Amino acid sequence: MDPQIQYCTTSDGVSIAFWTMGEGGTPLILTPPTTNSHIALECQYPPLMAWFEQLARKRMIVRFDPRGWGLSQRELSDEQLKFALSAVDVGAVVDHLSLERVNLIGNGVPGVLAVCLAAERPEFVDRMALAALGHGPDFERYPQLKAVLEIARVDWRLYTETWARMFTGWSNERGRVGADWIRRSVSQDFFVRALPYFYAFDLAPYLPKVRARTLVLNEATRRGGGIETARMLASTIKGARLFQFPRGGYFESAEARTAIESFLDEATEGALAPIIPSGTAIILFADIANSTALTERLGDAAFREKARELDEALRRAIRSNGGTAIDGKLLGDGVLATFGAAREAIACAAAIHDAGGETGLPLHVGIHAGDVIREANNVYGGAVNIASRVAGEAAAGETLVSATVRELARTSAGVSFEDRGERELKGVGEPVRVFAVRSEN
């Protein structure tokens, strides 16, 4: 039996359609699982409903149509349209159901509603999973997306067919069904009027205000990119983690569904168990500076004892900052760890230097972000080599980061960066610009 459609009214008088399924647990609110929203049509899509039913076994789930979409009010004044990308609609559903605390899943452009709620009511949101979020800068970064959207102004059918097939393939039935879904979910008039708001909306100011435990998901093969926004989310939201899955929408991918369900079911006490992303990761590499000279000065036995003490301290520093130590890569071969956020890796580097100072074994640290290959509890790839080479450029007690990491962390890590210029690194084809981390205290 399909869920019963209900309605509530927002503070600015817009009628919002929603349904609930299941009971108990922390309520889970889902923004649209695609770039379009129609809560009645979704009930006719068995794979999606099967997952909704699975989620509802442990908790109440809530699906709603944002204003202008699906069964919610479609005729909107210019003033009402201004709140198309805000927490007003989801907040109205939350208040109507008298919910005291919620978890969220946000996807696509409508997924920014989850971030808005988490930022504006931080005490109210416990956990949040974000997949394939889009916002204004994406349209400038990937002009092909904006070009396709602009077709909507002059030919609605051509736009819906092109957009749907761009993401599902050009010669399959899913593309035709997806295009029809768009046309039934939203009117051309509303969509065209809303485009300027889509283009102008920037998530960045909201992210530092989020306090919810956050999992960011990104599809490795997603057309039109998205990894830059995923990295921004993971590096700016405090404690957020990045999980990259191979292919398919997040509700179609077994890997993504498993990651989300595990994330929602994790115990609330203590730190969240870290995930090593199969794709992009923040990579920290550290090594003892002048280890040969230290060994000669201290003697083999004393050096090994200090190294064991430092090894334990480094593992603690990695864990406490949300990272994952890569087994077999501590001290003897250098310290290697992965993080979901650049801010976490930089904080860990500071703790590592403190530990090195206490044991009398100073370290040099390098941090880079890039794609990795995971095998068991190990990671490989060119990005790991770059992190190692960047560390080799650092002085004792210093942390150097690549330009990629500096870009990810410059507004969230509470540090400044000193440009050290481009370096020719062994085994790396192109020069890498590096920056020294400077504490602002």
Task: Characterise the protein shown here.
It is a single chain. The protein has 16 helices and 17 strands. By secondary structure, it is an alpha/beta fold. The protein folds into two domains: 6-265, Alpha/Beta hydrolase fold, catalytic domain (Rossmann fold, 3-Layer(aba) Sandwich); 280-439, Nucleotide cyclase, GGDEF domain (Alpha-Beta Plaits, 2-Layer Sandwich). An eight-stranded mixed beta sheet has the order 1-2-4-3-5-6-7-8, with helices on both faces. Strands 10-11-9-12-15-17-16 form a seven-stranded mixed beta sheet. The longest helix is centred in the C-terminal third of the chain and has 21 residues, at 300-320. The protein is elongated, with a radius of gyration of 24 Å. The N and C termini lie far apart (60 Å). The model is unreliable at 268-278 and 329-333 (pLDDT under 50).
Pick out its properties:
441 residues, alpha/beta, Rossmann fold, Alpha-Beta Plaits, 2 domains, eight-stranded mixed sheet, seven-stranded mixed sheet, 17 strands, 22% strand
What is this structure, in a nutshell?
The longest helix is centred in the C-terminal third of the chain and has 21 residues, at 300-320. Helix content is 39%, strand content 22%.
Structural class: alpha/beta
Total domains, how many? 2
- Can you say what the CATH homologous superfamily of the largest domain is? Alpha/Beta hydrolase fold, catalytic domain
Q: Which topology of the largest domain does CATH recognise? A: Rossmann fold
Strand content: 15-25%
